[in-house]
Amino acid sequence: MSESTTDYYTFPYKIQKVCVIGAGVAGLIVAKVLMDIGLNVTVYERGGQPGGVWIYSEDTGPVPLFPSTDPMISDPPEEVPDTESSCSSTSHHIRNVSPIYAGLRTNIPTPIMTYFNTSYPPNTPLFSNHEVVLSYLKSFVEEHKLNDVISYNMDVTRVIESENGWEVITKKLKRTENGPTQNDKQKIDLVESNANMEKIGEDRETIPDDNRKDISTHGSDDAEYVGEWREEHFDAVVVCTGHYNVPYIPEINGLKEWANTWPERVLHSKQYRRPDLFEDQPTLVIGSAASGSDISRELASTFKSPVYLSIRSISPLTNVAESVIVKPIVKRFIVSYSDNSNDYDDDSSNYIHEKRSIPYGKVEFIDGTVINVHRIIFATGFMYSYPFLHGIEVGNGKNEDVSKETILVTSGERVYNLYKQVFYIPNPTVSPASLSHAQALLISHVFASRVQLPSLTSMRKAYNSTSIDTMFKTPKAYHEFGTVKAGEYIRELLEWVNSSKNEEAGEKKEVFESWREDMHLGAKELRARELGY
Ligand SMILES: Cc1cc2nc3c(=O)[nH]c(=O)nc-3n(C[C@H](O)[C@H](O)[C@H](O)COP(=O)(O)OP(=O)(O)OC[C@H]3O[C@@H](n4cnc5c(N)ncnc54)[C@H](O)[C@@H]3O)c2cc1C
């Protein structure tokens, strides 16, 4: 990558053709602003429609690993076949199911969940369900004719850095007319149980090459699809694949044994849809953010059995229902077939007496208390994962040096080496970030050379000054600004973008309206008034 003699970074070639990966909230706005500025855009979306996480599905997807702490094991790169070799067809399956649950209401008001200069239809509820958000996104696609540049059912399996850009390899999933042959059937859907999941990465099944085609399952209809591979060159790539795909499930004493003994009695929030799908049994939900609060509330409102919520720390998203019993951090899970629960139960002994025939597991917390539960739901979040980025350092963070200047993802808690949370410093022609409208505008203006990035040295210096670990309580907090800081950040990016606007030539400056910030600041109280929680 070259630097000019001034303190600015210059791309080694002119950026004209840009690949956007993903057609969720981020990918759609990136595509629009890149088109607006006159660049040639292609969006690859592995699903059949736009909307990303806002596409609700009754399909709960494959069972994750318990524990799941390493993105490279839980979400390994998919093998790309060449004409001589073989390939496997499992990994796309894990990423395609949205974690949205049926009862979800937006946690911030819909007026501030919009792109700039757009709004939801009149009378839209302030805290809406997934259908409303999806419909807004689909209208945005229609209005801006984004379907002209989106290729659906295109799974990006490799992005390879080349001398003058990036080679993007996609797998097109085509629904087959006929069902698979018996031989094909043996090749598909390896992901059925924890036991099977654990084999991924160490015991991958190989499939004989058939003119770069392979058989996969995809989507919620159990239909069979044929994968066709294609490679295309781009000058730059914007990664908008989201970060609610790969469950994070911490390693806790006894968890593996519990999951092996009762695989159907442990799940991640990504697999939760509705309370009525579960038998009324004592349940422990782990995690105090939005999903943990919502899921424990929904279960407690339909169950007679106790619902516990294990909380590590209170965050702005914590919102515990009164009927939920709060517990501290779990120390260990105990697999026990004994039905004599008297010694163990602190909070629900009467209930346990009535249900002696059911083999409960036990959970011990760090305060020494022990409860009997039937089911555990981990609402412990997700990991950043970019398995298709080839040649960029992504891997298991446990032993990796996060001060390295090339590392992108380690344990999946955060993304490293991004300038202004957007541009990968070692090569700013790729942007693997979670993108808002302001960030998308910055990308389009930088790629179109309307504004310039500082030199690599200056970007590095700026990054280092905001990356000192002590500045953030947890690595994850690095991407979470809080409302006030988010406002400052958005204004900073827009000021930069606006510095290139020629108002005399009719170019309008971008504005971040202060009412959006005010509404965000008051969102929690507003939600409590509107929804009662
Ligand atoms: C349970 C839950 C509740 C939430 N509630 C709110 C809320 O109330 N308000 C709010 O503002 N935000 C909420 N969010 C955050 C929400 O995820 C973001 O608002 C936003 O939708 C993220 O958009 P995205 O485009 O970054 O990612 P996604 O929506 O995840 O979209 C990514 C897209 O990329 C595609 N893709 C992934 N990998 C590939 C590949 N290799 N090749 C091709 N395509 C690929 C996916 O199919 C998907 O369509 C919530 C998230 C969750 C999980």
From TrEMBL:
One of its GO terms (molecular function) is N,N-dimethylaniline monooxygenase activity. It comes from the Eukaryota. Transmembrane segments: none annotated. Keywords: FAD, Flavoprotein, NADP, Oxidoreductase. Pfam families: FMO-like, NAD_binding_8. Belongs to the FMO family. This is 6344_t:CDS:1. It comes from Paraglomus brasilianum.
